[in-house]
Design brief:
With 326 residues, the chain is mainly alpha-helical. It is built from 14 helices and five strands. The strands form two sheets. Strands 1-2-3 form a three-stranded parallel β-sheet. It has a two-stranded parallel ribbon with strand order 4-5. Helix 10 packs antiparallel against helix 13. It is elongated.
């Protein structure tokens, strides 16, 4: 049997290039060598967006279209919505009974997000306890690996600790999942800051070619290069950072050399990048258009995914109830 991998994504907005490079491209590779479970974490979205939940359903559908367009294959992986399986909530409740509060307060992102999202009241159990819900998501399917960036590794360690505590208190039924560290490139947005929906600087997977080229046309570059004849420094240019992720080696080498000698200008450099991105995204754009023409495809994928996930979840919950004795 293939080792099992599980990961989820919150439906908090349209997916951009950072999501593609940081998670989605990795998922499409993992589905060939692992038994993959990939889910829409809509309950997790409520932990920070509980006051404005109206867009979650729409964003869920758009996100799944992006997943399928990028190559996530429902014939290879199980794709489902978290809230379609109430067993996740039941296991979350049971695990919350045995999880010490200091374990949750030590999670680095707990205080970080409170600082970053000062405009929201995050003094809720849902926000404090969402790592337990993440743990339930993982242990429900006894995942062998959880693919995460280095900033999320503490969450996997918490999952391992809760699994050990449950196994020692009741019965050893849970695996301790391993962290599958993924290299997450830090993609700059059009303003040079980290690409983010909240900064309004993102290039989205659903952007048209025209929109993509226009966003790149106005993207910031080396601030010292004010005239076409000024030599540039690719090492401090956000456009070159994107080249290193999306362009072929010959183009990267050409831009690196000719920018420094002012043989090419920023407009040329951005055009090369736009061409590379269009080439890579064209298959996803075509697939996305086909999916949107099929009114039932997304629903069919999610229903079948929930059906497959439910078989595993039900078996796990039966073991949990037997172990606890309720």
């Amino acid at each position: 049997m293939k080792p099992r991998v599980l990961s989820g994504m919150q439906p908090s907005g349209r997916l951009h290039l950072g999501n593609l490079s940081g998670a989605l491209s990795n998922w499409t590779k993992l589905q060939d060598t692992y038994e993959g479970y990939f889910f829409v974490a809509d309950w997790h979205a409520l932990s920070t967006n509980y006051a404005e939940p109206t867009q979650i359903k729409t964003l869920t559908r758009e996100m799944v279209i992006d997943w399928l367009s990028a190559g996530l294959d429902p014939s290879k992986a199980t794709i489902f919505i978290q809230s379609d399986l109430p067993d996740h909530a039941v296991l979350h409740v049971l695990l919350s009974m045995i999880t010490p509060i200091p374990w949750l307060e030590r999670i680095p992102t707990y205080k970080e997000q409170q600082t970053q999202l000062e405009d929201r009241d995050l003094s809720t159990y849902g926000f404090l306890g969402y790592p337990i819900l993440q743990t339930a998501d993982v242990l429900m399917y006894n995942a062998d690996f959880v693919p995460v960036g280095i900033d999320q590794a503490p969450h996997v360690e918490l999952t391992r600790a809760i699994a050990r505590r449950f196994n020692s208190l009741y019965k050893p039924i849970f695996k301790e999942p391993q962290t599958l560290l993924t290299e997450v490139p830090k993609l700059p947005g059009t303003d040079g800051r980290k690409m983010s929906k909240s900064y309004n600087n993102a290039i989205y997977l659903s952007d048209s070619e025209e929109t993509l080229r226009e966003k790149l046309r106005t993207m910031v570059t080396d601030p010292a290069r004010k005239r076409r004849t000024d030599p540039g420094d690719p090492d401090i240019c956000p456009v070159f950072d994107l080249h290193k992720v999306y362009s072929d080696t010959p183009v990267i080498e050409q831009v690196n050399a000719e920018c420094r000698t002012a043989k090419i200008g920023c407009i040329d450099c951005k055009r090369f990048l736009a061409n590379a991105l269009v080439t890579q995204l064209n298959p996803a754009w075509e697939k996305g258009r086909a999916i949107r023409k099929s009114p039932t495809m997304v629903d069919d994928v999610l229903q079948e995914g929930a059906k497959r996930a439910r078989v595993t979840a039900s078996a796990t919950m039966q073991e949990v109830r037997d172990a606890i004795g309720i």
